[in-house]
Backbone:
């Protein structure tokens, strides 16, 4: 008698077995430990390759490198920003005698970002283009790792954290700003470092606030906590962000308010009667001291070179160096408020979500043979369009979830939904208040980490939770995998435009999906 032919497992059975195997692997302590290390290392390594390979191209000052590279070398040699003479840009490339005088120059950004650029230049020399960009490339790579750590804290998921950091690793805006000696890359690093420290403070503080204090129970006010080292660390990081660009102050304010609000909600859950008042007027001043004072001290320390020398701009405006620094800052503020000069790549903040006017950082026609008559090499801050528009949609969805919960008086959504929105409020909303100011699309590099986290959180929802029906999970996971695969292909397609490769002119035109991208 013939043996019955065993039936092949159905797709549903295979998916069930795969899910069980995946869960068993993740529960295994050895496999779990390996994944926790392996995933961020691989993503960070990919980010490093995309940011460090051929970093010295182009061998000339690109866009606003003309300001920050020269200021960085001046800081390294004089301790403050001096005045440059004619032919300075060419002198940097050919290493002729650099026309730098010790007369203080009026500059409008704090010095920390330029000091970081100067460290790379000290290693490679003033004519070494890799040295110009080394600090921003390393910090851009580290920002990818920080995205992983922040997303892991928010969601508890290795997969979500890997997707979020992977999206930033292959995104063009982050790649270009990591390969260019501008200030926005270091600014983004310190902003995200501060965000990570805020989350660590939340993890340490919220359970304490929610737990009754047996030593001194106070149901009316609750506890006042001074021992919050992660909040102090966040102040240092956000003070460093402000010492790169003043826009770091917006993040300091936004995350400070986030701390007060989450403190208040924790007291309400603990049954504190006067929970809003306690959070605002008892714990609030303490949190202000722990957060803002370290930020202020960090900011002042960044000006040490200007304070200990006498040649910097406005340094002699008052015998007291702190008053002289205050006088200088008033002039900087007047400049920023009145900055309305036109620029061909200027883009007001309302345009940013639509991606109407990216910045061409560097353009060269016919720079090298490419097999056709007309070639072009371009470095553009166009992000991966799929990542950008999907991230904007994800942020809008998270905002919708938050508003719906508030209207329906549901419990406040978890930090995975709310925290990316706090980061976007800090890095985007303030720019809407200055519609006449000359600003650029590449400022959104500070938004990019929070957008990547928002997109990863929404993709997890699309993929479906473990308790979702089998067909729902299968459909959702396939849709997410297809989307991520297309995203990778788009990044491959755009990589020449992000790194200044010589390509045929018609091939370059294929990358300009909107008129303003040219």
Residues:
């Amino acid at each position: 008698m013939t043996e019955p032919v065993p039936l092949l497992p159905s797709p549903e059975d295979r998916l069930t077995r795969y899910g069980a195997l995946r869960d068993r692997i993740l529960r295994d302590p050895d496999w779990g430990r390996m994944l926790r290390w392996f995933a961020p290392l691989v993503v960070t390594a990919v980010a490093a390759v995309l940011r460090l390979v051929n970093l010295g191209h182009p061998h000339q000052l690109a866009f606003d490198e003309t300001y920050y590279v020269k200021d960085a070398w001046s800081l390294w040699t004089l301790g403050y920003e001096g005045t440059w003479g004619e032919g300075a840009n060419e002198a940097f490339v050919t290493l002729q005698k650099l026309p730098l005088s010790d007369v203080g120059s009026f500059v409008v950004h704090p010095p920390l970002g330029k000091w970081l650029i100067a460290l790379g230049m000290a290693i490679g020399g003033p004519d070494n283009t890799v040295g110009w960009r080394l600090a921003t490339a390393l910090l851009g790579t580290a920002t990818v790792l920080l995205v992983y750590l922040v997303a892991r804290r928010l969601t508890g998921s290795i997969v979500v954290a890997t997707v979020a950091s992977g999206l930033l690793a292959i995104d063009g805006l982050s790649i270009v700003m990591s390969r260019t000696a501008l200030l926005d890359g270091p600014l983004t690093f310190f902003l995200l470092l501060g965000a990570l420290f805020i989350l660590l403070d939340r993890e340490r503080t919220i359970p304490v606030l929610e737990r009754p204090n047996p030593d001194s129970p106070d149901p009316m006010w609750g506890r006042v906590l001074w021992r919050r080292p992660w909040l102090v660390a966040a102040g240092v990081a956000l003070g460093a962000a402000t010492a790169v660009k003043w826009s770091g102050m917006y993040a300091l304010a936004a995350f400070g308010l986030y701390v007060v609000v989450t403190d208040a909600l924790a007291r309400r859950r603990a049954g504190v009667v006067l929970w809003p008042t306690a959070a605002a007027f008892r714990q609030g001043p303490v949190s202000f001291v722990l957060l803002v004072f370290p930020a202020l001290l960090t900011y002042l320390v960044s000006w040490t070179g200007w304070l200990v020398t006498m040649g910097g701009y406005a340094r002699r405006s008052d015998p007291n160096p702190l008053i002289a620094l205050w006088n200088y800052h008033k002039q900087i503020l007047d400049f920023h408020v009145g900055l309305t000069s036109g620029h061909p790549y200027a883009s007001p903040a309302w345009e940013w979500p639509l991606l109407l006017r990216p910045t061409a950082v560097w353009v060269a026609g016919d720079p090298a043979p490419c097999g056709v008559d007309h070639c072009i090499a371009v470095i553009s801050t166009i992000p991966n369009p799929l990542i950008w528009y999907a991230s904007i949609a994800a942020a809008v969805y998270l905002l919708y979830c938050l508003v719906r919960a508030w209207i329906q008086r549901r419990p406040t959504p978890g930090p995975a939904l709310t925290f990316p929105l706090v980061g976007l409020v800090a890095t985007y909303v303030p720019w809407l208040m200055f519609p006449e100011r000359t600003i650029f699309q590449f400022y959104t590099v500070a938004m990019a980490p929070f957008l990547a986290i928002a997109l990863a959180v929404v993709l997890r929802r699309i993929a479906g939770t473990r308790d979702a029906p089998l067909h729902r999970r299968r459909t959702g996971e396939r849709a997410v995998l297809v989307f991520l695969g297309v995203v990778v292909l788009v990044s491959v397609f755009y990589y020449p435009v992000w790194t200044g490769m010589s390509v045929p002119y018609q091939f370059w035109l294929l990358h300009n999906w909107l008129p303003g991208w040219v």
